[in-house]
Each structure stands twice: as structure tokens, then as C-alpha cells.
Amino acid sequence: MITLKTELKDVPSVKTDALVLFIPSDDKINKATKRKLQTLLGKSIAKTSLDDVSGEAGDTSVVYTPDTFTSRRIIITGIGKTKNITVEELRRAGASAAKKAQSLKLSSIAFILEDFDNGTLEFNESLENVSQAIAEGASLGTYKFSTYFSDKEQTKNRIKSASFIAHSKKSLKIIDTGVKQAGAISEAVYLARDLGNTPGLDMYPKKLASVAQQECRKAGCKVTVFDEQKIKSLKMGGITSVSKGSERPPRFIVIEWNGGKRTEKPYVLVGKGITFDTGGISIKPSANMGAMKMDMSGAAAVIGAMKAAATLHLPVNIVGLIPAAENMPSGSAIRPGDVIRIMDGKTVEVDNTDAEGRMILADALVYAKRYNPKAVVDLATLTGACVVALGHYATGMMGNDENVIDALKAAGDRSYERVWELPLYEEYEKLIKSDIADVKNIGGRWAGAITAGWFLKKFVEDYPWVHLDIAGTAILEENSHYTQRGASGVGVRLLIEWLRSV
Ligand code: BES
Ligand code: ZN
Ligand code: ZN
Questions:
Q1: pLDDT for 169-183, tens place per residue?
Q2: Do 339 and 350 form a contact (C-beta atoms < 8 A)?
Q3: Which residue, of 36, 305, 333, 377, has the fewest CB within 10 Å?
């Protein structure tokens, strides 16, 4: 990841490959910013080269500096109309500038933040939030999963550092706070993306557990891993059954961050950790099956969020629970028609072995009760139906508690990892009734995201709970402002934003 730094310096004396100056498209401020720049650069800049700078969001132009500057260029980056500037616009602007520098094969950039602090750009965000957003955009926008390239040229020539330039001691401190938070959060998102993008061959339950252990312990969490024997002895029948078809045994990962008072009840985060989902005996069609290496994206979000929460020393107690298994077809796999027993003793008729996520999550939701949680939030790439309903721009949300639902909605808007509520009306419950067991693991043709949510609700005990179906938002088909095709790492920023607000 790009190194993020803060410096107190005069703009012309900053040593970098490119300075970055943000400019809005409002006529008056746009012109005034250009005039100021013209003065700073002297006559060497033809007025016309600045005339072309529109200030439209996403627009970048490069101008070259005179000898009075240590840096040779300035990337002028548009941020649109000041009345529309939000933290999301700034993330995108940070990403645009960093990606422009990357395409010029530069290795360092330095953001000039003065105009956000001297009254030139007036809008409703603190300098700390401005710095955090730009830094997040710059680091997340330049992510690339390059583990498997043998040609190291692919990784060379990448942008290495971004500096944030303060103009006063006071602003330096504020900017530094924002940039440090962005650093901790981006590192966690990188981890979640890497976990998701790693092929199933190399990312299996035991491996997922060892990465969680390594990364979260380093940040200050306590991590405990249950092996297959322990999972069986706890009667976690969902996890045991789903992993029966695989050569690779399941794991149950418990990550704890105790930043709050000893007596305070924890928030519990549960993440679906299917390291590869073939569908099992109800096997999936081969087209795009490779994307199912990302069926552990809920787990990745929880691991990332725990790491970030610990790095940021959030003053709350949090427990991360990850049921991890591989869903494979084989002579030892569970079959459609089988009846299994979840940890709380309830029986499930397995009508379709591809509806496996809900069965491993059921054990985790029952186990969560042990912590007497303040609230439980689960994240899972649970249903294709959720992708059909919401596409890639909103996570499906269901739950039993208005306060947690509202808080997650607000955190979603702020982080731009937006969530949208689907109803858990009682009428949907009958769709998962079984003739021979307490519940069936699939509903009919309709409302697939909701019947999956209802299945989980059957195993939720008397604690506030929200389920987030990230099937569409965790797995992306296209590059966008600061996300790339593949694993998005969704959930990390949402959860941290939420946990900071509680
Ligand atoms: N992991 C899939 C859901 C999924 C689909 C995630 C597409 C991301 C993209 C899940 O285990 C699954 O297979 N669900 C089935 C449920 C069905 C059998 C009721 C589905 O959505 O088709
Ligand atoms: Zn499945
Ligand atoms: Zn799955």
C-alpha cells in the first residue's frame, strides 16, 4: 500500500513527483484559484493551459512548474461544485489524482490542503474528515492484486507515497489525525480485498484462520481458533455438515478486541467464511464459478474491521466470529434431503446444498448468545437473489432492531458502503417450512434474499440483530472510482463508521 505522510511545508519547497491541487467548478472560486496559481507559478505558465481546467469532478490536468519549485508538476484535480462536495466526492478526487500519477509512472504525490482550511472552499466538513477522505481515496484507488504475477514489472513503477501538506502547525495536527485513520482503515480494506481475491486453492479454512490470527494479533486482538474436533464437540452441525464434502476441515475463528470497559457488553460481528462455494452436490453451473473464491467476503470484512478497530483503539468491546468451511461435492458430502442439527438443537432439512452459508451462520448466531451481546451484525455473500434485487451498489439489510438498522443506514451513507433494508414480514416465514424438520434451508422462487434472512432469524436469540447480504457489493465486475473488479473489501469501512458512532 501507498505510504501516507503529513508535512508542514511551503508548497514550492515540497519534494515530490507531483503536487496535487484541488479545484472546484464554481466559476468564481475556479477563477480565483487559477489566479492564485498563476501568481505562484509566475509567467512561465501560459494562461491558456489553466483555461482548460474545468474543475469538473474527476477531471485532471497536469501543469509544469518553474525552477522556483522543487516539484516539477502539479496535477490539478476537479472536485465539482462546492455545494455538492461530500466526503465521497473527496475520496473520488483523491483516487483520481493518485491514479493519474500512477498512469504517469510517478512514485510520489503531495496533496495541497490549504484551500480546505483558509475559507477558499467552504463546505460542511472538518479538515480532519477532508484529509481522511482524500487519503482513503488515494490508497484504495491504487489497490492492485498482484500476488500471482511472475513478472515483477507489474508491481514495479507503482506509486509509493502520498504526502499531505499542511500550512500551519495547528492544521498539521488535524490533517495527521485524519490521514492516520485513513491509513489504518485502508490497510484493513487491502487485507479484506487480498483475502477475497486469493484463489480457493490457497485460501481454505485453516489458512483463513492463520491469516486472521497473524493480522489481528499484530494489531492487538486476542484470537482463538477452534478445530474440527472442537467444532463437533460444540455440536455445530451446520459447519460440520457443510464441510463434509471437502478434504479440508473447517475452522471457527473467534477474534476479540477489548477497547471498552471490562463490564461492557460487546458488539458481535459474524462473517460468512465459505472459502470456496461449488454448491456441493447441488452443484453450481460452471460459468463464473471462480467468483465463488470470494464467498468468504463476510469473513474478510470481519477480519479487516477487527484489525482496524484494534489499530484505531476504538473504545468498545467487539467480538468477531467466523465459521469457515469449503463447500465441495464428493462421496462424503451432504445430500439434498438430509436433515442436520444446528448448535441449538433445531433441525434443518437440506433441500439444496448450495444454500450452505445460512447453515454455518446459524451455528455462529447461536454461539454469539454466549457473549450477551449489545448487538450482533452478520455479513454474508448469502444470495444471488440479493444481487438481482439491488445490483452492486447497495447491500441488503434485514434485522429485528430499529436502532441498529438506523445506525447502520447512517454509517452506510457516510462511508458510501450503502445499505438498503428489505422487510422480514411474518408472511415470508412459511416459505421455509419443512414437512420433516424444524426448518428448510431454501424457500421457493421468490424473495430469496428475504427467505435467507428469515432462516437466520430462526437462530437469532433475544439480542438486537442485523443481517447484511453483501453478495452484490463484495464481488465487483467493473473498476470504479476507488474500487476494482474482484473483491471490494466492502463492510470494513461501514463497520468502522458504525462502531465509531455507537
Ligand atoms: N454464495 C452463494 C450466493 C452468491 C451468489 C453470492 C452470487 C455471490 C454471488 C450462496 O451460497 C448460494 O449459492 N445461494 C443460492 C441459494 C439458493 C440455493 C436458495 C443462490 O443464491 O442461488
Ligand atoms: Zn451456495
Ligand atoms: Zn455461498
A1: 999 999 999 999 999
A2: yes
A3: 36
Task: Flag the least confident range among 31-35, 282-286, 310-314, 496-500.
Answer: 31-35
HSE of 236, CA atoms in CB hemisphere, 13 A = 31
Q: Give the number of the ligand closest to the Cα of residue 474.
A: 1
Q: Angle of helix 205-219 relative to helix 297-311, nearest 10 degrees?
A: 10
What are the structural domains, with CATH classification, of the chain?
Answer: 3-192 (3.40.220.10), 214-291+301-501 (3.40.630.10)
Q: What is the pLDDT of residues 277-286, one digit of tens each?
A: 999 999 999 9
Q: Are 359 and 241 in contact (CB under 8 A)?
A: yes
Ligand 1: does its nearest atom lie under 6 Å from the Cβ of 354?
Answer: yes
The grid coordinates of residue 270 equal 459474524
Which residues are near ligand 3, the ion (C-beta closer than 5 Å)?
A: 274, 277, 295, 357
pLDDT band (50, 70, 90) for residue 394:
very high
- Alpha-carbon distance 425 to 447, whole Å? 11
pTM, 2 dp: 0.98
Which of 383, 440, 473 to mutate to test ligand 1, by most ligand atoms within 8 A of the CB atom?
A: 383
- Residue 45: the pLDDT is 72
C-alpha cell at 172: 498539521
The amino acid occupying position 83 is K
Q: Give the pLDDT of residue 48.
A: 75
Asked if residues 243 and 333 have their Cβ atoms less than 8 Å apart, the reply is: no
Closest ligand to residue 390's CA: 1
| 355 pocket-lining for ligand 1 (C-beta < 6 Å) | yes
